[in-house]
Amino acid sequence: LIDLTLITYDDKSFQVHSPILAAVSSFIEKRLRTEGNDHSENNGGNVQRKMVSLGPDVDHIGLQAIVEFAYTGDVQSLDKDNIVLIRAAAQALAVPRLLELCNKVMRIMEVGTPVNEEQKALSLQQMKITLQSIEHLWADRVGCDVTLDVDGSSFDHKVILAASSDFFRGMFTCGMRESCQTRVTLPFLIASELEALIDCSYSGNLPLAWDCVFEITCMALQLQFQTALSLCFDFMRQEMDASSCLDVASFAEAYGMSELLEEANDFILRNFWVVSDTAKFRDLPAEKLLDIIRCDGLCVPSELAVFRAVSSWVQVDPEERLSQAGILMTGIRFPLMTFREFREVRAINLRMECFGNKEVELYGAALKEFGFSLPKSQEQYRVRHPKDVLVLVGGDQLNPDAGQRIASKELWFANSLRNGTGLVKEIEWRRLGEIPDKPKFRHGVATMMGRLYVVGGCYFYTKDDIMKSAYYDPVENIWRRLSDMQELRSNFSLVANKELLYAIAGDKEINTNIDSVEMYNPDTNTWFVQPLHQALSGQAVATIDGSGIFISGGFNSKYECLSSMFLYHPETGTTCLADMANDRALHCMEPLRGHLYVAGGLCNLRKYYTDQLACEVYDPVADAWTTFTSLSVPHVGAASAVLEEKIYILGGYCQDNYSESGLVHRFDHSLQQWQNMGKLPGAVSDIRACLLRLPQH
């Protein structure tokens, strides 16, 4: 598909694609616009090639740099020895962006900064601009060398089609008849869907909605538009909800997309209670419904929810579906119900039997299973194994023998989530390992690029006990040291944002907190200190889609609880946002569905503190707070994390009497309820938690 040969004054030739060069060179673009679109067939069907001889200002070194810049957005060979030749060629062929790059590199070399790092940062941006320029050529029908006839005409560049689609690459480069044609008729395609895919090839954008995504995905599969296909899959994964997950699962199963099918099925299991209330659920085939309710990983408030879903499915068409009710009831684990719940089963089953013939017996079979179960058998649970595991790090607790507090160096992870009888739920904890060196609490924990970072903290309630930092690589199952922070800090917040770690505020000693932020760059293993608008400790932080770091509450320099909310940007500093309705510190804040949920902690009570049970949720678009279900027990100095779109609050203590609960509570957004998930395995106060992908899990 090469259609242009450039010949330098020293008789060196370069073969290129004219639309690519025209996107960076005004000289080539002008020639392309002047010549117009020549669709004549020649050379036995080969691509019609043009030749351009260049003047003495362009030698092979300069032209090679221009070609490299057009195709990659970068010039690896740009240095002080050839920059003059490259600038001369860029001026002769009118390549303003390369000229600008040369001028910038010359300024960088004057101050001694490495050139390669600066060029790498600009490469992606330059490629985006080049693609936009090619899109403008396409819009103006400049350099288009093929007309695709699909319910009308569409003028396109063969090279762009071939680069985007394996189908068109084979058509135009493998000697097929269409490779020598300037008009290709495609009667089997739908114009609107093909237009969306071609537009994506030029712009990199693919507007999608549920009313068109499956059709566009089918065509992307048929024509092998790989980039568009990835965008379609990303849309389905990110936008999947209760009303669309069953369609995604059916689509993925029909086309053999195993990974997408696994994700859709997992979404159905995690959100079964909400999915079962949709119209599409009531249209499920009985076999598919049975497969779902038989899964161990089915996530429901109680087993009664499974029975209600099955009975509502049957009652959509009792005459037709009652005969299938018996086999569906075998997927319900009646031993997991309480006597009160089973009374509802009895009433509904007997009522359904009245609609059928004498051969349908539902209540008797359910009663038999309910009454003859073993009380402590493994069948007493639905056991779910999340892909990401909840990890607990460090913390401290009261030693019951000595009556003193002891810090922990243990790491635990939640191996499985278990639904028991009625509303009983448990977490199966397993030991993961230990922190290097001494135990610690009031430290910082974050995950970034698959690694667990443990930073700062202390191992006793005195100053100068601030601990060193390290990270754990679960793939290699090894700990490695980090460089030390420049400032001592505990009771601070650690968060990952755009592949950097941020250690925000904290205590440097008892009753003295810090007004700074430290940024950690894992590539250079270095920390950089930046100022913060005020001294803080015991605050909570979170990020939403890399839009900045939200900081809520905490203690000020007088150790008064705050109700403030700020947005912190490393470049611009802090921006004040709407205050919370309640002051709080030593609390938790987690992002969920584009909002920030705040729970737990303590608050001011005249000269003292008391437990804060009220919970609030922040909407960053409206810059407003609303309340949600309050906690039933205090969680001061607790850990938190979001696992499978549910918020976990782990451990902590009660401020009023300093008792330790050791409990785990989970907030289910769909039910607007806090659920008791059992107890922690070790330390319960000032612990930290995060999610981690374990290879062996």
Automatic annotation (TrEMBL):
Residues 2-79, 144-210 form the BTB domain. Keywords: Kelch repeat, Repeat. PROSITE patterns: BTB. It comes from the Eukaryota. InterPro entries: BACK, Beta-prop_ATRN-MKLN-like, BTB-kelch_protein, BTB/POZ_dom, Kelch-typ_b-propeller, Kelch_1, SKP1/BTB/POZ_sf. This is BTB domain-containing protein. It comes from Mola mola (Ocean sunfish). SMART domains: BACK, BTB, Kelch. The keyword Repeat applies. Coiled coil: none annotated.
